Amino acid sequence: MRLFTSYRDDFHGxxxxxxxxxxxxxxxxxxxxxxxxxxxxxxxxxxLHNRPSHDVSIGLVFVGRQFSVARIDxxxxxxxxxxxxxxxxxxxxxxxxxxxxxxxxxxxxxxPPRMVHTREIWELPKDE
Length: 128
Hints:
The protein is α+β, with helices and mostly antiparallel strands. The protein has two helices and six strands.
C-alpha cells in the first residue's frame, strides 16, 4: 500500500507530490514508479483544468529519498530522471529547481521579449 499526500500552491502554479512506498523494495529505485507518475499526471491535469490561462504545470515528485521534476502541459508530460537526495549532485539539482520556480522566469538580456501583433482581435481571418 502506498501513501500519497500532495500539496498544491495555486499562486506559483506548482504542485508537489509525496509518495511514500510501504517498503524500499516496492518500486524501482532508478525510474519513476508508475503509480507516482499516474498520480502526478492527475494532479497536473486537475491543475491545468482549473486554470485555463496556464500553459504548463511544473511538479516535484518525491518517492522516498528520491525526486523527479515533472513538466505537464496540455499535450502530455515529461519527467526528469530520478535523483537521489543523499548525493551532492541530486541535492544541487533540487536547490536549483526550487530557486528557479520561486523566482519565476527571468528575462534573457540577449533576447528580450517583444510583442508581435499579426492582426487585430476583432478582425476575422481571410479566406485564402
